[in-house]
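Please go through the sequence and fold tokens given here and tell me how the chain folds. Record follows.
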Amino acid sequence: MTNLTSDQIIDLLTQPGPLQLAGIDLSDVDLSGVDLSKADLSKADLTRADLSEADLSEANLSRAYLSGANLRKANLSEANLSRAYLSGANLSGTNLSKANLHHANLDHANLHRTNLSGANLSGATMPDGTKHD
């Protein structure tokens, strides 16, 4: 994983166009309200990151680590979260419509008032530890 200073993170977030952040370490970083739509965050470490109210629509978060992350009221519509690790994440009020959660781990995640309409949950581990068909 790539480690960045806070100044480098700010520089990255001000770049135009979809961000290429695959494999980056953004653990414990406050990204609340940030526009990360269409960003490539595959294999990124977002453990305990604050992504509340962030726009992650159409973002690639496949195989990303989001354990304990705060995604409250974030927009993850049409995002790719296949094989993402979301154990203990706060997804309350989050828009996951048409998101790909194939084989994602949602163990102990908070899905209160989460919009999962049209989401692919095949093989996902649900908050109660059961596997979705």
